[in-house]
Amino acid sequence: MFKALLLQKTDGTFSAGVQSLEEASLPPGDVQVQVAYSTLNYKDGLAISNRGPVVRQWPMVAGIDGAGTVLSSSHPDWKPGDHFIHNGWGLGETRWGLLAERASLEGRWLVRLPEAFTARQAMAIGTAGYTAMLCVMALEERGLQPGQGEVLVTGATGGVGSTAVALLSRLGYTVVASTGKASEEAYLRALGATSIIDRASLAAPGKPLQKERWAGVVDTLGSHTLANACAQTQYGGVVAACGLAQGGDFTSSVMPFILRGVTLAGVDSVMAPLARRQQAWARLARDLEPAKLESMVTEISLAQVPEYAQALMDGKVRGRVVVKI
């Protein structure tokens, strides 16, 4: 038996809670693992609070992220005792996830834990931090360099935003953090933000072409915020879009793209190829300062996850939530 956070929907009634499950109920997989730490991401929050259509099969063990130790393996790249990281690949949506003591996975999904990180640190980063690194890489690959101007990070107190602020500032960029939480200015400046703007200045519908300001943007919100960010991006600038916390709509025009040569780069973390994941984790090991990472972390138990999922969706959580399994 193993403990897991199980999501159930019976006759339209939803429930989420820790239960003991039989290991024989795990799905097929060529790597069996013991999970040491997991984390609480936005998608997990949607699923566990039942606020979004994330789960596609019931019942479902939640948790898109995990780090721990391989127990057994028939995959050639993995052997018992190896330390792994898992991000995405549909866990917690179509396949049982990692907010659990045990999991059955596919070896082709796993990334080896970098020597620079403990399992706890890897989950302090989690999909949110790994996505932030993918965004930074997307900006760099499209020509953004320090010294070209300000880089905007929206949703800056969230997991992706906090990590993006820390990474960009470490790499020498001038970072402007957008947030609706004025009380978190000291937190964002400690991560490396040089200035703070109110998210309300970007959240309402705006003109399709506005005064140029941003050399680059990491956007976690979508909707009007993304449209305004594009409209304010400098000639030849780059916008990396990775989230939809404000909404999945994008009401804009082609003007920033055809009149200013702005690039809108979509960033996906769920199905990213293994080589891309390995590159991102190698960069995180090099470019993310451990002290800044720790300043983002709140650690909770598995039993506390439903409570924190509700708080996350209510905008009452900052940084990263690590779940000790």
Produce the secondary structure layout.
Elements: E1 2-10, E2 13-21, E3 31-40, H1 42-48, E4 60-61, E5 65-73, E6 83-87, E7 102-105, E8 111-112, H2 119-141, E9 150-153, H3 159-170, E10 174-179, H4 185-191, E11 195-198, H5 200-203, E12 214-219, H6 223-231, E13 233-241, H7 255-259, E14 263-266, H8 274-287, H9 290-295, E15 297-301, H10 305-313, E16 320-324
Parallel strand pairs: 9-10, 9-12, 10-11, 12-13, 13-14, 15-16
Antiparallel strand pairs: 1-2, 1-4, 3-5, 3-7, 3-16, 5-6, 6-8
Tell me what you see in this structure.
With 325 residues, the chain is of the alpha/beta class. It has two domains: 2-113 and 294-324, Quinone Oxidoreductase, Chain A, domain 1 (Alpha-Beta Complex); 127-266, Rossmann fold (3-Layer(aba) Sandwich), CATH 3.40.50. It has ten helices and 16 strands. The strands form three sheets. Strands 3, 5, 6, 7, 8, 15 and 16 form a seven-stranded mixed sheet that branches. Helix 6 links the parallel strand 12 (214-219) and strand 13 (233-241). Helix 1 packs across helix 10 (305-313) and helix 2 (119-141) packs across helix 8 (274-287). It starts with a strand and ends with a strand.
